Amino acid sequence: MVNENAQAAGLKVLLGDYPNTRPLKSGAVRMPGLDLQFADVRLPHSAFKRVVRDLEFDIAELAIVTYLQAKAYGKPLVLIPAVVMGQMPHPCLVFNGERGRIAPADLAGLRVGVRAYSVTTVTWVRGILANDYGVDLDRVRWITFEDPHVAEYRDPPTATRAPAGKNVVDMLLAGELDAAIVAPRDLTDSRLQSVIPDAKAAAQAWCERYDVLPINHMMVATENATKTMEDGVSQLFAALVESKQAAIAEGASGLQMVRFGVEKLRPSLQIIIDYCVEQRLVPRALTVDELFDDVTRVLGT
Fold first, then answer.
1. Strand pairing report for 217-222 and 59-63
2. Sign of CA dihedral 150, 153, 156, 161
3. E strands, 150-242, where?
4. What distances in angstroms separate CA 157 from CA 38, 102, 113, 208, 293, one per listed residue?
5. Are 111 and 195 in contact (CB under 8 A)?
6. What pLDDT was estimated at residue 8?
7. What is the pTM of this model?
8. Residue segments in the chain with a per-residue pLDDT below the cut of 70
9. Please, which residues bridge with residue 141 across strands?
10. Can you give the C-alpha Rg of the chain in angstroms?
11. How far apart are CA 184 and CA 21, in angstroms?
12. Residue 38, beta-bridge partner list
């Protein structure tokens, strides 16, 4: 039963500004009766702690590994089968080409910088290194710059915090790191070269081999929202689908990783769950089905 008063109050939403979300955020895509109150946050990941620690938003964009950790630690959040952002992880692991070549087999004992140990892209990269290149992740020296979003999680002994005020790319270029996992926006510097040979081709082959596309950010809702604002949650899902279609109609490209529906996402979700278990990022194994509730499970079917 939908609480009509709660529905009328609107939904507090955290959502980034991407080609596939801009039609919705700009008002070009409208849903009758859907009152969305978008948080004034430029970089959604900067508010992920507020999502999992404070339950500040009814519906929020959230990194999938952060959600898996939150779920495993009992946070009252439910996954919505809507991807808003994905990327190929292979090219994100880089070294400074001016300081000599590094391959996956060379990483044991080296210093690898990561924004935070539990970042989703980092988890994808580590899983690929371990499962496809035979890298012993416990022999890598992980250098972190931020705390995990989920307060209950603790970084492993192999992770060390970088000095305050340092920047991962600057440390890599200065030789204070041997390699790093960086955001795509940092890959413009020609000195940064991929640790994984021919990374783009390797990423494409990986996707074809496993028949998955890597997920980065999905949408989540509080358990209270799916219980008291069921229609609003369902309408927002439909609005996200329509927003992607509008973006494509306007000429946006590269949205193949923005997918909807549990079954379409199941293979990718299972692999990232497996990676989280292997890397001891979650205190227990999760199933794909328990990530959803009766309201969100049927969206996109």
1. antiparallel
2. positive
3. 159-161, 179-181, 192-194, 217-222
4. 38, 24, 15, 35, 35
5. no
6. 40
7. 0.94
8. 1-9
9. 111
10. 19
11. 19
12. 13
CA distance 98 to 245: 43
Task: Extract the tokens encoding 113.
Answer: 């910088």
Cα separations in angstroms, 294 against 79, 105, 218, 230, 288: 11, 45, 18, 10, 13
Look at the block and give the residue holding tokens 């992980």: 142
Residue 105 identity: A
- Name the residue among 234, 292, 226 with its Cα closest to residue 262: 292
**Residue found under tokens 């009814």:** 58
Q: What's the Cα-to-Cα distance from 119 to each of 79, 123, 208, 295, rounded to whole Å?
A: 18, 6, 24, 28
- Total residue length of the chain: 301
The single residue listed with the structure tokens 């935070």 is 116
The amino acid present at 74, given as its one-letter code, is G
Pairing mode of beta strands 77-85, 217-222: antiparallel
CB 281 within 8 A of CB 118: yes
Residue 31: the pLDDT is: 83
Q: Which amino acid would we find at residue 254?
A: G
List of domains in the chain: 4-86+213-291 (3.40.190.10), 90-210 (3.40.190.10)
SS3 letters across 20-56: CCHHHHHCCCCCCCCCEEECCCCCHHHHHHHHHHCCC
Angle between helical axes of 262-278 and 64-72 (0-180°, round to 10): 70
**Residue 34: per-residue pLDDT:** 84
Which letter does DSSP use for residue 260 in this model? B
Predicted local distance difference test score (pLDDT) of residue 32: 82
